[in-house]
């Protein structure tokens, strides 16, 4: 591969970069040598996707999906119009950086761009550029919308953030050429599965407390019923002989009597792994937390039964 490998082009709540090591150990052993199809139904910033694409060039194909239309529009734009996107991002970056030192003007600029983004009147590339601009300049890289699908995260306090990472956008564009990009509910990815398919699920996590709710990436909430619907989908995949790996929060770490996931996935392999979460408004809470890695592979190297 020429140049640097593609990496996530967004900051995203629940980014999986730090869990790659444990996910790697849970992968099917023959993935490097067999023509696997890789499906990621909740792609977000795609940390696992890019790692898989960089490390398994043999992959037959990859399919990514997310319910967030604006996120998927950005993926599609990077895949098909990287140069146009880069030109717009360069303008946004130059304009924003030229305001450095003048907080009032910087704020004005940020909120004007946020309003423009929410009008959703720009071209496909213009919307994608605004999506990346907001992600790079907003508070903590959050993506949060209200019921009307209006992005409402305030400005962050970064000095001269990189808004246009040209080299990575080109690398991502190249990597996405073998990826089918879908927008919708996770269940419709099933029709893209064939023999030797690996699904990696990173759904919105079940919140550890009422206030730690970072699961509002889209205007509809991913509540407990949704978690149950996802488990039912996983059981269906298991019956169809597809392999899957799923991440979620370890609610038991917060309340040892909370057996929600242990009960829900009692038929599968549950592993507790350490994870450092970066997106937390309160720096004191950015410590180490346990997360769950669940798989339907009986021989997963890391297999540890839930305690
Ligand atoms: C935890 S994030 C994924 C994090 C990602 N793997 C990463 O590395 O950054 C969960 C994603 O699920 C998406 N989502 C929420 N409900 C969904 C649904 N019903 N079907 C598909 N995607 C959904 C959200 O838009 C969000 O991008």
**Major sheet strand order:** 3-2-1-4-5-7-6
The helix-and-strand class reads alpha/beta
Uncertain segments of ≥5 residues (pLDDT<50)? 301-307
Number of helices: 10
As an assembly, this protein is single chain
* Assigned CATH class of the largest domain: Alpha Beta
The value of Rg in angstroms is 20 Å
Brief account:
The chain is α/β, with parallel strands linked by helices and 307 residues long. It has helices spanning 20-26, 47-55, 69-80, 82-98, 103-119, 124-137, 166-175, 224-239, 251-254, 260-264, and strands at 37-40, 61-66, 179-183, 197-201, 243-249, 269-276, 288-295. The protein is built from ten helices and seven strands.
Structural description of this entry:
The chain has 307 residues and is of the alpha/beta class. The chain has 2 domains: 17-66 and 184-209 and 221-295, Vaccinia Virus protein VP39 (Rossmann fold, 3-Layer(aba) Sandwich); 75-167, Adenine-specific Methyltransferase, domain 2. Helix content is 36%, strand content 14%. It contains 10 helices and 7 strands. The chain has helices at residues 20-26, 47-55, 69-80, 82-98, 103-119, 124-137, 166-175, 224-239, 251-254, 260-264; strands at 37-40, 61-66, 179-183, 197-201, 243-249, 269-276, 288-295. It has a 7-stranded mixed β-sheet, sandwiched between helices. The chain is globular and about 55 Å long. The N and C termini lie far apart (43 Å). The model is unreliable at 301-307 (pLDDT under 50).
């Amino acid at each position: 591969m020429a140049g640097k490998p593609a990496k996530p082009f967004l900051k995203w709540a629940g980014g999986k970069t730090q869990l790659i090591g444990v996910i790697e150990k849970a992968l099917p052993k023959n993935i490097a040598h067999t023509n696997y199809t890789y499906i990621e139904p909740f792609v977000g910033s795609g940390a696992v996707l890019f790692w898989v694409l960089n490390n398994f060039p043999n992959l037959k194909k990859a399919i990514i999906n997310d319910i967030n239309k604006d996120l998927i529009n950005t993926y599609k734009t990077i895949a098909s119009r990287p140069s146009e996107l880069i030109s717009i991002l360069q303008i946004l970056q130059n304009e924003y950086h030229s305001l450095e030192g003048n907080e009032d003007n910087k704020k004005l600029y940020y909120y004007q761009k946020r309003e423009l983004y929410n009008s959703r009147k720009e071209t496909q590339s213009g919307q994608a550029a605004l999506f990346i601009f907001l992600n790079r300049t907003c508070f903590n890289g959050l993506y949060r919308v209200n019921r009307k699908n209006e992005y409402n995260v305030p400005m962050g306090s970064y000095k001269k953030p990189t808004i246009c990472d040209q080299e990575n956008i080109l690398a991502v564009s190249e990597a996405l050429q073998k990826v089918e990009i879908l927008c919708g509910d996770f269940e419709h990815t099933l029709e893209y599965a064939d023999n030797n398919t690996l699904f990696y699920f990173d759904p919105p996590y079940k919140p550890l407390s009422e206030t730690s709710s970072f699961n509002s990436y889209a205007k509809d909430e991913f509540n407990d019923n949704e978690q149950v619907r996802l488990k039912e989908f996983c059981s269906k995949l298991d019956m169809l002989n597809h392999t899957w790996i799923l991440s979620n929060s370890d609610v038991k770490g917060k309340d040892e009597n909370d057996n929600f996931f242990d009960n829900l996935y009692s038929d599968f392999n549950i592993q507790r792994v350490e994870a450092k979460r970066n997106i937390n408004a309160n720096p004191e809470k950015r410590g180490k937390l346990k997360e769950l890695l669940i798989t339907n592979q009986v021989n997963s190297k890391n297999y540890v039964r839930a305690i």
